[in-house]
């Protein structure tokens, strides 16, 4: 493995950690309706579990209401049941082949709890980025030990990897603060 490969690998894996954080935070409910909130809800479809958005069209009616339009009439019941039994705390209302999903307003206490969850997710992402930095530094030490690079090259590359780490940790902080602001907005 060369110096550029070590850096490139660390960079792409750190970027994936930030992206995983964004995906995880998208599932945290903010009180406003958005179609992505039902992405991780699965429904039984001909014997296999599939996401709701693969058996229905999920649209935002207004700031507090989602509309789930199932493509097959016989799927309305299972989709409604899947939404009700999900960990989102939603109570869907069936209207034939479409389902209305009102978003209950968040209490102040629940908002504070959600910000703690967001901070914990952010901290987990930072730990992942730091672990990737450690792995990259270990790879550099191995290259020095195998006499493929000099110690000066190792120090220079460690500085670059530290800069990458700082960049991605800053990005994580930004994502977390945006999500906290979104949650705390009434």
Automatic annotation (TrEMBL):
Keyword Lyase: no
InterPro entries cross-referenced by the UniProt entry: Ribosome_recyc_fac, Ribosome_recyc_fac_dom, RRF_sf
Pfam families: RRF (PF01765)
Ribosome recycling factor domain: residues covered: 23-184
Gene3D superfamilies recorded: 3.30.1360.40, Ribosome-recycling factor
Assigned protein family: Belongs to the RRF family.
Role, per record: Responsible for the release of ribosomes from messenger RNA at the termination of protein biosynthesis. May increase the efficiency of translation by recycling ribosomes from one round of translation to another.
Lineage start: Bacteria, Pseudomonadati, Pseudomonadota, Betaproteobacteria, Burkholderiales
Keyword annotations from UniProtKB, A to Z: Coiled coil, Cytoplasm, Protein biosynthesis
Stated name of the protein: Ribosome-recycling factor
Annotated localization: Cytoplasm
Coiled coil start-end: 133-167
UniProt xrefs under PANTHER family: MITOCHONDRIAL RIBOSOME RECYCLING FACTOR PSEUDO 1, RIBOSOME RECYCLING FACTOR
């Amino acid at each position: 493995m060369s110096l550029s490969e070590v850096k490139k690998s660390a960079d792409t894996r750190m970027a994936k950690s930030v992206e995983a954080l964004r995906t995880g935070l998208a599932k945290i409910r903010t009180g406003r309706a958005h179609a992505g909130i039902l992405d991780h809800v699965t429904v039984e479809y001909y014997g296999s579990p599939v996401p709701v958005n693969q058996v229905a069209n999920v649209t935002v009616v207004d700031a507090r209401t989602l509309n789930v339009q199932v493509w097959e009439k016989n799927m309305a019941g299972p989709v409604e049941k899947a939404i009700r039994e999900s960990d989102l705390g939603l109570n869907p209302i069936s209207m034939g082949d479409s389902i209305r999903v009102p978003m209950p307003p968040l209490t102040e206490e629940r908002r504070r709890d959600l910000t703690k969850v967001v901070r914990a997710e952010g901290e987990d992402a930072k730990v992942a980025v730091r672990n990737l930095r450690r792995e990259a530094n270990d790879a550099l030490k191995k290259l020095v030990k195998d006499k493929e690079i000099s110690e000066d090259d190792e120090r220079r590359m460690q500085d670059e990897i530290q800069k990458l780490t700082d960049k991605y940790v800053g990005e994580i902080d930004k994502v977390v603060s945006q999500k906290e602001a979104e949650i705390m907005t009434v």
